[in-house]
UniProtKB/TrEMBL annotation:
<dbReference type="InterPro" id="IPR036388">
    <property type="entry name" value="WH-like_DNA-bd_sf"/>
</dbReference>
<dbReference type="InterPro" id="IPR036390">
    <property type="entry name" value="WH_DNA-bd_sf"/>
</dbReference>
<protein>
    <submittedName>
        <fullName>Helix-turn-helix transcriptional regulator</fullName>
    </submittedName>
</protein>
<keyword id="KW-0614">Plasmid</keyword>
Length: 122
């Protein structure tokens, strides 16, 4: 990733925050976004299942800790606070961070040589 992409342009703060996320934090943001698009319930258990399907080796406890951290950072909101079961949604700030990461990855793929991309598709 080029230094100029990190420091230039709109939303560079969101990109810097994306870069600092752990793989588990990124995956949880992505999975919650996918669940929202498919109109699924974003319950903690559903997030655990979705993360597990990505073959990430994380415990239920670790997922809940990350969910809590993302709520504390203002990237997720717990739609049912003070209840035993929580339902999560992305906040506008969380969506900005996710979109910044997506844009960065898309730009990186766009810069790959066509030969490399065609080899990967075969």
């Amino acid at each position: 990733m080029s230094e100029s992409r990190l420091s230039d342009g709109e939303g560079s703060g969101a990109l810097e925050e994306w870069v600092e996320l752990t793989a588990t934090e990124r995956r949880i943001l992505v999975e919650i976004s996918k669940m929202e698009q498919e109109d699924w319930a974003m319950w903690g258990g559903a997030v655990i299942d979705a993360v597990g399907e990505q073959h990430l080796s994380v415990s239920d406890k670790q997922v809940y800790r990350v969910l809590s951290k993302l709520v504390d950072r203002g990237w997720l909101v717990d739609l049912i606070p003070d209840k035993r079961t929580s339902r999560y949604a992305l906040t506008p700030t969380g969506r900005d961070v996710l979109e910044a990461g997506h844009a960065e990855l898309t730009a990186a793929v766009d810069e790959l040589p066509d030969e490399l991309l065609s080899e990967r598709r075969e």
